[in-house]
Amino acid sequence: MRSLHLAFLVASLVAAKHHNDNGEDKLLSVQVVIRHADRAATTGWATDKSERILFRGNGELTDLLVPLLTCNDGWEDVVAKYDLKTSENAKDTALVKMLSTQWDAPECSQVPPALVDAIIAELVQKEIKMPDHFKACAKGHAKKFMFRYIEMLAGAGDHFNALRLKRVAGMLTNELLSNMQKAASCSPPCNTQPKFRVYYTCETVFESEVPAMELLESPSEESDSLETNIGIRRVTR
Asked: Does 190 have pLDDT greater than 70?
């Protein structure tokens, strides 16, 4: 496994316009949020050698800021959209329903839907030789499908849900905003606030940070990879 693989990076910049002699903006604070390193699929393996290479087992790298997705409320939109019988275990039953209705792309016709997580997770592992049709599916439709699923979990994008978004992004968003406020209100010379902070968490929290932080550039299912997007927000005073 590579030691670090970015899903996307969020940088929050707080600038003040009048703190230098030339009347130019002065950078007060930078915050970077990084997706955790590569992990094995939560369940399943793409090849018979995958388990030996990813020897720590499924879910090899666990999420550090784990979103609260086990509550039964906050899923009304998902229950209605996918015609679920109950909101209990909605994140899992919605995935099953999505796979049954959105797994019809030609490049994935020979790939079992249950392997969607495995083929995406193992695509970056050079030691694992997946069949070519697994690779084609992972690079194309499977990636777009997984983006939509993560977006649904986060309550973001077309699946906007304020309660789910708050549960997923609330803790990290409060931390980022608090840091920005402290940096913006600190009187110069400000030696009490760190100039640079780094956080790392899972892809679901990332997806929720886009609407929460009103980032200028957001990830998209059309991106070449779920690992390439950058979002920046500037705040001036």
From this structure: yes
